[in-house]
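Input structure tokens:
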């Protein structure tokens, strides 16, 4: 793929593997971690489609491959085998710069540990990925303020992360993920560092964002939160053992 092309430009020529509504298509994806003494098969033959507008949870016990799968979906890691198409474009074996460029434009991340930069304001934290994208200052301001308003944090734009509660910090992290208007939000245990009240509030926010049209894929070990999604994929020993829609 030429590095100057965008996902949207290529998708105009190449529809999704399983139809126009298919955002992500994994076919036989494997991931093997090698050390001097052991070969660990983290993922074994994952076949998965995620459609635009879906809210998908990935559940399973510790060590089953959930976070590895999310890292591959987010272009933070590459599969050892199989193919991965995003918006109709094969992305599994792209160069590091191309993966970074597509990740910045198409994928929003929500991490368990918030990953906010302590000496930047709320506004500046949300703005940072847009700066890396090369967006102009006026456009950045509009995108940031819109994202902060969507998560109810517009009034905290000038505060530092240390001046916020854990729940508020996670809302800012969600705003950062939303600001660039990505194709999909990837959430890795988004309530893991929160108490039950703040965890419930963040899950309510994700549900509201999905109702507004966001496509979400969330890793969680909490069965209560997995049930917030309209589809749950269960992993065990690196394999999909169940893929079911909500009742």
């Amino acid at each position: 793929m030429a590095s100057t092309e965008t996902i949207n430009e290529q998708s105009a020529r190449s529809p999704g593997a399983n139809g126009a509504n298919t955002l992500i298509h994994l076919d036989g994806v494997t991931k093997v971690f090698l050390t001097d003494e052991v070969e660990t098969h983290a993922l074994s033959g994952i076949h998965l489609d995620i459609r635009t507008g879906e809210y998908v949870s990935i559940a399973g016990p510790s060590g089953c491959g959930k976070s590895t799968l999310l890292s591959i979906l987010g272009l933070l890691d590459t599969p050892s085998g199989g193919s991965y198409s995003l918006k109709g474009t094969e992305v599994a074996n792209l160069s590091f710069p191309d993966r970074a460029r597509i990740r910045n434009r198409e994928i929003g991340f929500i991490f368990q540990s918030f990953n906010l930069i302590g000496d930047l304001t709320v506004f500046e934290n949300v703005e940072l990925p847009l700066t890396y994208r090369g967006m102009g200052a006026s456009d950045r301001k509009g995108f940031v303020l819109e994202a902060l308003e969507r998560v109810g944090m517009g009034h905290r734009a000038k505060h530092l992360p240390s001046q916020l509660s854990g729940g508020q910090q996670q809302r800012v992290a969600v705003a950062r993920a939303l600001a660039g208007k990505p194709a999909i939000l990837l959430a890795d245990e988004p309530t893991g560092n929160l108490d039950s009240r703040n965890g419930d509030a963040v899950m309510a926010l994700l549900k509201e964002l999905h109702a507004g049209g966001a496509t979400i894929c969330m890793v969680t070990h909490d069965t209560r939160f997995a049930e917030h999604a309209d589809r749950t994929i269960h992993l065990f020993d690196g394999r999909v053992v169940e893929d079911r829609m909500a009742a």
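The radius of gyration is 18 Å. DSSP finds eight helices and ten strands in the chain.
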